[in-house]
Structure formats: structure tokens, C-alpha cells
Design a protein that fits this description.
By secondary structure, the chain is of the alpha+beta class. Among the domains are: 3-68 and 122-195 and 302-373, FAD/NAD(P)-binding domain; 478-595, 3-Layer(aba) Sandwich (Glutaredoxin), CATH 3.40.30. It is built from 15 helices and 24 strands. Strands 1, 2, 7, 8, 9, 10, 16 and 17 form an eight-stranded mixed sheet that branches. The longest helix is centred in the middle third of the chain and has 35 residues, at 355-389. The protein is globular and about 80 Å long. It starts with a strand and ends in a 19-residue tail after the last helix.
């Protein structure tokens, strides 16, 4: 039987698997991706790409392609709650509330904290783009319409049996490691992974369709409208969102509409009933949508008990699944791939020891736990919002009276509107989760703690505090070089560590060069300050660096800080040697390059 040899086998061609493929290619590590479907799916699925994900895409060279086709921030800068899309009744087409979202409108701190803006680009279009980018970097590395039949592993690697679905032909792949980005369908159960948490919360239906809704959609800047009518709630009344692809205002050509049936309603699987239900909920009895696709899905919030099983790593939906609120699922999946890829590349190239791969779970699993619990909270918040609006579930008459009172120009109406304003102060944690998106950090893993405490986090997830504390994402600051603006986040990439020093960091600079040579790794020394390689003209980095002019910050290839030292050290080389050894999980051994000593080799 034919066999193919590859360092990394990726199973699954969604956002996670494709990001892993692209990142590994950027790192110079060969991989093979197999996907059981012949092409990406036909449903929009996730659509929100947050700033951190766009920073990842910026580093691996796909951000410009995404921005060129995605929905600009100004068109996703508001979320609304309305009574209905159409209709001519006294309570139809009224807006309960609108809130700024995802860095748009009044949320100016987002632009100060990242070189990237949030954007909207549904998976139905993102995946083909990523597939194109992955194939360009690794032309023989993607096999669609191929499925994993079985696999086994030992201390030397993974051997997988692959089947080409059209012909039935089978062959084997021998890989050093395997990434399970298959949504948890096959590999997780095979290795004994357990998904723990809340499941079967709501049965949802998504209708993906084309239609001209510009006559009724009256806010060009609103990304999503939640409908709340007297007969339902914010899920059963429907959620309508824009999808573009060429018009992003009220003239959006494509839309997605989520709604739910009662769990005991047999019509929930009767697709012939879905368009009549859409017409009823939207109050558009003459609507003739061009249906592109229909999806049924279950809301759940679960996380795998483990991420690593020998040489197999779970990522994306195979490792965690979120309610759609806050848009954390796809973003977490992309960030999983980014974290894992540089570690696999380092270990395969024998720059890091096997223990470095253990840090994937110790770093990413706590982040997923936080994200899953956050998404569950924001999902549950919609019940609170419904109450703040005045919805009485199961009592349409009482709800109509409350709605009429809400919109009335009376003292009671003003009180009801003020009450909803207070309630939305809680609901904002879904659409203004700036700290949750940028402020996550790693307390254990490929880092060297300096004994400091993390900045106090905003319990509502809004206020992000930049810091160079080890484990945190490197803060963004604009620098200048050769009259060009460069973000600090642009300094790392392509598998290179970066040692950022100031004008008085000569000892660290020398140590960095010698350590890079001794460890045989890519480590770039960058000076920032007056009369340095990079100018800090706006003094932003000076404000954010949290080390002195003679200190140093070591940044990992994934733009998380691995180590820092506040000031100069007489034993700079030995100090940096110790830090690199702890991050790469290699035995220390470099004391002084001039003594001819080198770190112990990786087994």
C-alpha cells in the first residue's frame, strides 16, 4: 500500500486546520491536511473575526486578503433589539435599544490597542480563502474528499489510514504528530477524549438566504438585529444578520436568520415550514427568499478533558465548543492553531524538547475554559435582556402591554427605558469584550514568571490593560523605521523570537546574538528608542514596556511574552540562557559562548 511521510498530519479543513497548515508552512514545516468534504461548507457558520485573530492572520500573511473581501468595521459597529423587521402595527418596526459593538462607534480604545480592526467574514467565504492561501504555500499539502479511516500511534509517531472517498482508494500517512481539527467527530472519541460541560441547550435553525431587505433594514451600521415580539423571546423571535458579500449596508445581498422551535415541535425538522416561519417572524408575508442553505445545530458549551494524547493534539471544535454569543468559537480555534504550530515546528526541528508540546494544553485549555464559561454567561444574559424589555414568556397580552408602556412618552415609559439601559450594561459583555479578546494570558507553559501579578481584569470584560508580563500578548505600539510605521507585533514572526531592548541594552544585545547561535534558533535583537533601530516617536512603547532602558523583553514567535528583565544584569548571557532553556524545555548548559559551551542537544 502506498505510504506518504510527513511531519504533521492535519485532519480537518475548517478555520483551525487551515490556519495550522498556513502557519506551519510559514515556519518551514511540512504538513498534510485532509478534509472529508470535497469543498468548504455551504453555510455561513461563524462570521466575526476579532482583533487577536486578525493579528494572527496579519502575522501569517493573510490579513490583507481577508480585509479586502470582508465587511468593514463601520458596518458591524452596532447591535440592535427590535420588535420586528416589517409590519404596520402600533408596535412594529420599533427599536428597543442599539449598542456599539466590536470596536465601532464610541469604542475608540480598540484601535489604540491593536494594529488590526475586527471584521466580519463568514466561514463560508473565509475557508475558501484560507484554502487558497494554504495551497499556495503548500501545493501538495491539501487533500479534500479524503477521510481518516483509522490511525495508531507509538512513541515514534502516528500512522493513519486515509481513504479517497470518490474512488475508495486507500493509503497510509506516517507522521510525527497529528492535529485533530475535525470538530471532534472521529479522533477525539478514538483517543478517549471526554467533552465536559453544558449541552443540548437550544435547538437552532439557521436559514442562509439572498434577498433585498433594504426597504425594512434601516441601519447601515447594524451588524445584527435581535427581534423580541410578544409571542417569543430573543431566540424564538429570530436573529437577523448581514453577510454581504459586496454591499455591507442595508443593501446586503445575503443574510442569515437564526431562530428556534420548541423542543417538542415536530416542525423543527420540516424544512418546508421554515420559510413560512421566517415570514411570520419578520412580518414579511410576501417574502420570497432565495435559500442558499439551511442548518440545524445545538447550542452547547463543552471542553475536552485533555488536549494532548501522546502525539495527537485536539484543537478547535474538537477541543471546545461555545454558544455563538461573543463569537469566540472560530477565534479560539484560529488561536489554538497559532499556539500549537510554532511549538510543533520547534520540536520537529529539534529546537525545543517534547515538554514544549505539553504547554499547548497548559496554555490554551484555561483560555478555552474562560471562553466557554463567558459564552454561556452571555447566552444566558439574553433572558435578562428579554425581562428588561418587558417580555413575559407565554403571555402575549401582558408582553404587548409592557411593550406599549415601554415606548410611551410617559414617566413609566422613561423608567422602563432607563431600566433597559441598566440591563444592557450587563449585556454589553457580549459585544464589548475587549479584554476577553486581547487580555487572555498564560500562567503556566512556555514562559518564565517574573513573580509579578497580572493586571486586575475587568469583570465585565471590557477594559483591556496592556502589559509585558510573561504569558501576556505583547502590547501593540507604533514604532518608526525608515519613515515607516511598524507595530511591535510585526517584530516577531516566521518562527523567530524577538529580544526587545532599549538604548542601554548593549549587554542584552550581545547575549541575544550569542544565545541564538548557541541554541541554533532564530532570535532577532531589536532596539527601540532614541537613535535606535526603531524609533519610539510617540512614546507609546516607553509607556507600555514596563522595563527600564537597560532591561529586555523576550517575545515568543506567537507574540506572547516569554520572559522579561527590568534592568541590566552582569550575567546577561547566563540569565538569557536560563530563560530560553525554560521556554523551550531544553536542558540549560550555555554559560558563556567564549568558553565553547553549547546547550545540551535536544534528544
Amino acid at each position: 500500500m502506498k505510504q506518504r511521510r510527513v511531519p504533521v498530519l492535519i485532519v480537518g479543513g475548517g478555520g483551525c486546520g487551515l490556519t495550522a497548515s498556513i502557519t506551519l508552512s510559514e515556519l518551514g514545516t511540512d504538513s498534510l491536511l485532509i478534509e472529508r468534504h470535497p469543498s468548504p461548507g455551504r453555510l455561513p457558520k461563524a462570521r466575526y473575526l476579532n482583533q487577536r485573530t486578525m493579528e494572527v492572520f496579519r502575522q501569517i500573511g493573510v490579513a490583507d486578503a481577508v480585509y479586502a473581501r470582508s465587511m468593514p468595521l463601520e458596518y458591524i459597529s452596532r447591535i440592535r433589539w427590535c420588535t420586528s423587521l416589517a409590519g404596520d402595527g402600533p408596535l412594529d418596526r420599533k427599536t428597543f435599544y442599539a449598542i456599539d459593538s466590536f470596536g465601532g462607534g464610541s469604542l475608540t480604545d480598540y484601535s489604540a490597542d491593536s494594529p488590526c480592526k475586527s471584521t466580519l467574514y463568514p466561514q463560508v467565504r473565509l475557508e475558501p480563502l484560507l484554502r487558497e492561501e494554504a495551497a499556495r504555500r503548500n501545493p501538495d499539502g491539501l487533500l479534500y474528499n479524503h477521510e481518516l479511516v483509522s490511525f495508531e500511534q507509538d512513541e515514534n509517531g502516528v500512522t493513519a489510514l486515509i481513504r479517497e472517498r470518490e474512488s475508495g482508494a486507500e493509503f497510509t500517512v506516517a507522521a510525527d504528530y497529528m492535529i485533530a481539527a475535525d470538530g471532534g467527530r472521529t479522533i477525539g472519541p478514538a483517543v478517549g477524549s471526554r467533552l465536559e460541560g453544558a449541552t443540548n441547550l437550544v435547538d437552532m435553525v439557521t436559514v442562509y438566504f439572498r434577498s433585498d431587505l433594504s426597504e425594512w433594514w434601516d441601519d447601515d451600521h447594524a451588524m445584527t438585529t435581535w427581534f423580541v415580539n410578544p409571542e417569543g423571546g430573543s431566540w424564538s423571535s429570530g436573529v437577523l444578520g448581514k453577510l454581504g458579500p459586496t454591499r455591507f449596508d442595508r443593501h446586503s445581498e445575503e443574510w442569515m436568520f437564526h431562530f428556534t422551535f420548541r423542543p417538542d415541535d415536530p416542525a423543527r425538522f420540516d424544512e418546508s415550514s421554515l420559510v413560512p416561519r421566517m415570514r411570520e417572524l419578520l412580518k414579511l408575508p410576501e417574502l420570497e427568499p432565495d435559500i442558499i442553505g439551511i442548518g440545524h445545530w445545538v447550542v452547547e458549551g463543552v471542553i475536552a478533558d485533555r488536549y494532548r494524547f501522546g502525539r495527537v493534539f485536539l484543537a478547535g471544535d474538537a477541543a471546545h465548543r461555545h454558544p455563538p454569543t461573543t463569537g469566540l468559537g472560530l477565534n479560539s480555534a484560529v488561536q489554538d492553531a497559532h499556539n500549537l504550530a510554532w511549538k510543533l515546528a520547534a520540536v520537529i526541528a529539534k529546537k525545543g524538547a517534547d515538554g514544549l508540546l505539553d504547554t499547548y494544553e497548559s496554555e490554551r485549555r484555561p483560555v478555552a475554559e474562560r471562553n466557554v464559561s463567558w459564552a454561556l454567561l452571555t447566552f444566558q444574559n439574553h433572558q435578562l435582556t428579554d425581562v428588561g424589555i418587558g417580555l413575559v414568556r407565554g403571555n402575549g397580552e401582558a408582553s404587548r402591554k409592557n411593550f406599549a408602556a415601554f415606548f410611551a412618552d410617559t414617566d413609566e415609559g422613561r423608567t422602563r427605558r432607563a431600566r433597559l439601559n441598566q440591563v444592557i450594561g450587563v449585556q454589553r459583555m457580549e459585544w464589548q469584550a475587549h479584554d476577553l479578546e486581547l487580555g487572555f494570558y498564560y500562567d503556566r507553559g512556555a514562559i518564565v514568571s517574573d513573580g509579578t501579578f497580572a493586571p486586575e481584569r475587568d469583570p465585565m470584560g471590557g477594559r483591556y490593560t496592556p502589559t509585558t508580563r510573561p504569558g501576556h500578548r505583547l502590547p501593540h505600539a507604533w514604532l518608526e523605521k525608515d519613515k515607516r510605521r511598524v507595530s511591535t507585533l510585526d517584530l516577531a514572526g516566521n518562527g523567530s523570537f524577538v529580544l526587545i531592548i532599549g538604548a542601554k541594552g548593549d549587554a542584552w544585545a550581545k547575549a541575544g546574538v550569542e544565545a541564538a547561535e548557541a541554541y541554533d534558533i532564530r532570535l532577532r535583537v531589536v532596539t527601540v528608542g532614541d537613535d535606535c533601530e526603531y524609533s519610539d516617536a510617540e512614546r507609546c512603547w516607553t509607556h507600555l514596556r514596563e522595563v527600564n532602558e537597560d532591561g529586555a523583553v523576550l517575545v515568543r514567535p506567537d507574540n506572547h511574552v516569554g520572559w522579561r528583565c527590568a534592568d541590566a544584569r552582569a550575567d546577561a548571557l547566563a540569565t538569557l540562557d536560563d530563560a530560553l532553556a525554560k521556554i523551550l524545555k531544553r536542558p540549560p548548559g550555555l554559560v558563556h559562548a567564549r568558553d565553547g559551551r553549547r546547550p545540551l542537544a535536544v534528544a
